[in-house]
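Page 42, continued from yesterday. The earlier attempt failed because a stray header line got pasted into the input along with the sequence. Redoing it now with the clean sequence only.
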Amino acid sequence: MQQTNYMIYELNYTTKEEHIDVQGIMDGLYYPFYMEDCRHKFIKEVMNFDIEHKAKEGINMVLTGYTIKFLRPLKKDDLFKVTCILLQDKAHPAKFHIKQGIYVNEKLYTEATFTATCILASGGRPFLPEDIQELLTTAPEL
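This time it went through. Structure tokens are written below.
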């Protein structure tokens, strides 16, 4: 993995047998699920945004899109890590991005960029709460 001067959050996982398809590789459907698990923990632990608590307050964090590239397949019992990096979007200040990777032995297997914003449960325009805006001021740009 490339050396950077911004924080990289990472969690370790092992592929589950029930996620392996008839070809002996992990079904493409499950890569985003592992990324989502890591991303939600990143949002809570690093961004200090508790998705469940904020939803009860009427603020929903939602994805507006994502791109994913599959470079190498994961196999049964592979030990891998999922990473998250927060990125700002100066062209769209009501959005932020989380760049994610799946690595085995420091080799990139899958890469993705997830784009998100917040909306009030009652409706209205997309926005980012002040604490997230503040975090983004030091984040690299997409």
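Notes: Residues 87 and 97 are 5 Å apart (CA to CA).
Reminder to self: strip header lines before submitting.
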